[in-house]
């Protein structure tokens, strides 16, 4: 009789343990499912032109190459829609003109991300004043390059104030010119000068070739 009682007790314990493991596995499965979403892009809100984006970005503090890149990235990221949203597979959301991520930049609220000027200010801060765009996929994969010509044109239509010299550098007086010799350098956007010269927030320099931008 004692043996039977012991066997029954052990069987009950095994059954309860199995039930607990099943519930735990089910909970973990639900938690895993909750952190996985189907990627989906929605383009809504006001459609801003490249010229409008240039004005918005400049007001936020962008200038020089940083200004041009900021416009190109906004066009590549959101196509110019102020309330564009991309739901990522990790369920985070990229929001607004510059697609500010809700997980990595939770300090930026939805209302700020969907406000063009607030979104531009957030992008300015995240990009270190337009000098570091590594957090934007369209920059790292090169997609923004498709919009560089349009961005440059937009800046030409809305030039704003003439840029002022920065310490140790100079205003790009020969914008769009070719470099005079291999001793000079130029940015991929047409700014020429020596390696110690900067345009606005900085010159992304590359070597010249036969007097032309490489």
From TrEMBL:
It comes from the Eukaryota. Keywords: Chitin-binding, Disulfide bond. PROSITE patterns: CHIT_BIND_I_1 (PS00026), CHIT_BIND_I_2 (PS50941). Transmembrane segments: none annotated. Disulfide bonds join 185-199. InterPro entries: Chitin-bd_1 (IPR001002), Chitin-binding_1_CS (IPR018371), Endochitinase-like_sf (IPR036861), Lysozyme-like_dom_sf (IPR023346), SLT_3 (IPR043992). Pfam families: Chitin_bind_1 (PF00187), SLT_3 (PF18896). GO terms for molecular function: chitin binding. This is Uncharacterized protein.
């Amino acid at each position: 009789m004692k043996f039977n009682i012991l066997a029954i007790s052990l069987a009950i314990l095994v059954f309860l343990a199995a039930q607990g493991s099943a519930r735990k596995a089910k909970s973990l499965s639900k938690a895993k499912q909750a952190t996985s979403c189907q990627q989906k892009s929605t383009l809504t809100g006001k459609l801003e032109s490249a010229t409008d984006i240039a004005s918005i970005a400049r007001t936020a503090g962008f200038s020089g190459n940083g200004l041009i890149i900021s416009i190109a990235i906004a066009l590549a990221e959101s196509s110019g829609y102020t309330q564009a949203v991309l739901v990522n597979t990790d369920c985070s959301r990229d929001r607004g003109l510059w697609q500010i991520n809700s997980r990595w930049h939770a300090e930026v609220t939805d209302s700020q991300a969907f406000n063009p000027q607030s979104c531009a200010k957030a992008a300015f801060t995240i990009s270190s004043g337009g000098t570091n765009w590594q957090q934007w996929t369209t920059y790292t994969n090169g997609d923004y390059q498709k919009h560089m010509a349009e961005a440059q044109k937009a800046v030409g239509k809305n030039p704003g104030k003439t840029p002022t010299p920065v310490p140790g550098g100079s205003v790009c007086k020969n914008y769009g010119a070719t470099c005079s010799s291999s001793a000079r350098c130029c940015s991929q956007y047409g700014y020429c000068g020596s390696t110690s010269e900067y345009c606005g927030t900085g010159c992304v320099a590359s070597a010249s070739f036969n007097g032309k931008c490489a």
